[in-house]
Amino acid sequence: MSKSLFSEFNKVSAKQWKQKIQYDLQGANYNDTLIWKSNEGIDVKPFYHADDFVALPEISNTKASKWNICQSIYVADVEKSNLNAIHSIEGGAESILFIIPSEDISVKNVIKNIDLNHIQIHFKPLFLSEAFIKKLPEKAKIHTDIIGNLTKTGNFFKNLNHDFQEFGNIVKTTKSFSVDMALYQNTGANMVQQLAYGLAHANEYLNHFENQNKSSVENIKATFNVSVGTNYFFEIAKLRALRLLWETLAAEYNTNPNCHIFVSPSKRNKTLYDYNTNMLRTTTECMSAVLGGANTICNLPYDGIYHKTNKFGERISRNQLLILKHESYFDTVNNPSDGSYYVESLTSQLAEKALNLFKEIEDQGGFLKQLKNGTIQRKIKESASKELEQFNNEEEILVGTNKYVNPNDQMKGELELYPFLKTNLRKTLIEPILEKRLTENLEQKRLKNED
Fold it and tell me: Do the beta carbons of residue 88 and residue 72 sit within 8 Å?
């Protein structure tokens, strides 16, 4: 098409739009009335314009048409897990994440009758073993993260030297490493913190490998495990910013600038009461994941916080992704968020703020040092407390829990799993970062008051 669309209309500058809005406000203050500040310190404006950019952003290299539907399976029983995987694949799963609790698990039997040429397999061992990793198929993606284990449990698998030695051997074999950023979101960190901590977390690995053997960092592929919440456009921008930040860091080490982003919905905002609303939350979260450029998406069952794994919950969670892909056409357009002035602006601001925080962390000794002295934990607690206050004041709404509550909703007889934070007193190297849902205190009070 040689003639531009809308060429008969005069261009309107950002200044002209703002003047028109100011006139329509009839004396009300533009900044106080229409601009709100996010928890990340970003001023969100009522409109965005090309004038906001010195140069329009470049086209991103993500392929939203290539995302995979994943099913997560905890391997307690090898035969049942294998049959579950096959059933999930027949039901539309394109990828399987096997969570492996023991080194005694037979890999051969877990993946029996699964076509590895067409189904992407992920393994997440809950232990550290180079010998076990060598048993895995060459095409499998490995989710081993010793710093992630430290942040979650407060301890290394064995000790720092042993873990880094074993982990280094695994990375040499797989040419990849994994970073668990989901933990930071599920404990209440804001998006700038999630990005900065994820980057600093990855930098600890790259810095260690480079110091040990410079050639060991070349062409390493990073996998970032990320959780997304319901702040729709911000979550799209968060994933896009993560790719930009990783490209920047990878360039410093001359390693692979591409990364694999493995996304699951947040646990932070999931509720026990009016649990069907969890399906609405996970649907929009998965939409953000696709539009943000996730490679693999593993949905959460709507009843996952209080029911044991069940076929119905798994099928519903998988069907949500199937509907997005095959009925809502979320696999037909690459880079769908490119060119949105709002999303581009959020992406730029999140990346810039996260990079500044990352530099602060590095200037103060790095991520591990700040974990050891409790700085990371304290910052996350501050952010989580602020979010909880917003929830308690009904500034952050979770329908069915702190707004539009059904007083007749009874859940005490439905609990198959303990849905609240468990704490066990034990000696740890650092203070662990513990996942806690936003609604737990309120839900515990409601359970006590049930008839």
Answer: no
